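Fold sample X.
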Amino acid sequence: MRSLIAALALAVLPAGSALAQDGEEQSTPAFIDLAWADLLPEGEAERINQLMQIQSLQQGMDHFGADRMPQIQTFEVVDELDGERVRIGGYVLPFDFTGSREISRFLLVPYVGACIHVPPPPPNQLVFVTTEEPIQVQGLWDPVYVEGTMRTQRHDNELGDTAYTLELIEMTPYRS
């Protein structure tokens, strides 16, 4: 009977949950490990692709120009991520970079070179990250993991508007 109950419980537990076995404590992950695609609601990737095609046909694309390229303005989010402790990998794009290499706010971007001279990623593919205590960044081209509390909160700024914000708990080098 106990194994039947355990099997039924496993069938209804959310992904990543663990069931206590004979005196073991239940183990839950410290964070939800996200990929960038996890930030898109169902059908949003296709919508973004269509909007990017329309934009490139209307305005062309100048990868080497000095003009700012417009950002596709889609702020659709995955509401279930609001308030969750998450970890996601990406690259740091700081707002203010001092000689000591300390920052307290930055954009986490999905790829190197995500900037305003090529169409920046849409807002739901950028994360505005803040920390109360400034952190030191070693290399801007080095991938990192950020871990913290995710909010489905819009943040408009000069580098690229975002549909998500993250209250940083920890930043570590990316390891595959």
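Fold sample Y, listed below.
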Amino acid sequence: MKVDNLTFKGGVHMHGYKELSNQRPITKAKDPSMVYIPLHQHIGAPCECIVAVGDEVKVGQKIGEAKAFVCAPVHSSVSGTVKEITRKLTPTGMMAETVVIENDGLDTLAYESQGKTLENSEPKEIISMVKEAGITGLGGASFPTHVKLSVPEDKKIDFVIINGAECEPYLTADQLSMETMPEKLLLGLALEMKAVNAPKGYVAVETNKPKAIEILRKEAEKHANIEVVSVKAKYPQGDEKRIIDAVVGRQVPSGGLPMDVGCVVSNVSSAIAIYNAVYENKPLYERIVTMTGHGIKEPQNLLVKNGTPLTELIEQAGGFVGNPGKVIMGGPMMGMAQTTLETAAIKGLGGLLILTEEEACTGDTTDCIKCGKCVSVCPVNLEPISIHKLALKERFEEAGSIYHALDCVECGSCSFICPAKRPLVESIRLAKREIRSLKQKS
């Protein structure tokens, strides 16, 4: 098998613990009796609620309308009755207007296929269908996909890259999606290429997923302009700017976007959702979630309906092993620790990681020993320790103007490698927030 082993400078190697969940088939999660669907599940403006208490809704029916360009509509994941419209906490730590729907168990669909395919869909039509389906970046960023595909006239896109690295430890939803849905994935990529008029498409998969690479390369034989390449298994190989560098050798400039170098990068699950939107007219109301970690009894991948309570997902995965040390939305490097389990699944929930008490204990922080490891692993070539020191002294403007703190992708490689266990990425996040605040005031 052809092995490309493409990569970028920097990054760290770590045990991924993929084996906990990647050997079991994707299982459909049990339908919840009640769903709690937030109307703000994306970067940008929240949706406007278009249902009322007492309304009967169907699966895939729009319940939140996008009233701004950077916004994605929200759809019901069950058929049933709207019981309440209230404000609830989401796994992102944000309060959002939430539609509570009682499931009638009938799964009555609000949509049916319109007979659309790659061949009979026009670029603007594809983008419109993506928007109406409420598709967002499912790799964690939750950026509305129709915005990413709406390329300005002065920009030319040469490549669309599907990010199949899935470099975050523990998570395996993308791996199983690539292995079981290769046709949908590549057609989703082809639809994106058509939408942005890109002549070439790539699927980039880490070398630790040989089965996915083999299956996708066989499927790619049907597509003359799509190539499957392998990228080195290291973290953060899946960062979109790093994967652009590795695959096509282009560097996104400081403060720039992938389209500035002729690229669009999309997540595996997002591309499959685009296929579903065009070929099946299916909105994004469910996704695959990796339930994993040594703190849960039965790690696995579940097909989860939007709005399913996290407690029900944990129960379906066998429950906790003892007392959980930490529950994280996403992976251990860039995920969000949960303060409560009284929340529900959202579009951006790609995984739920349960660490044991021992794993959650990071140890004591000591003084910096000036080893320079944080500098050597930084994929953006920053000086994390310098930004960290300025942040502690509240010299945020210097952290931005001299050390380019805003270029940090918050991957956490610096904190991971630091022998002194300094909270480097946490202080850089603080610095970035304060720098942006200062810019807004000026």
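Sample Y note: The chain has a mean pLDDT of 96.
Also: The chain is about 30% helix and 20% strand.
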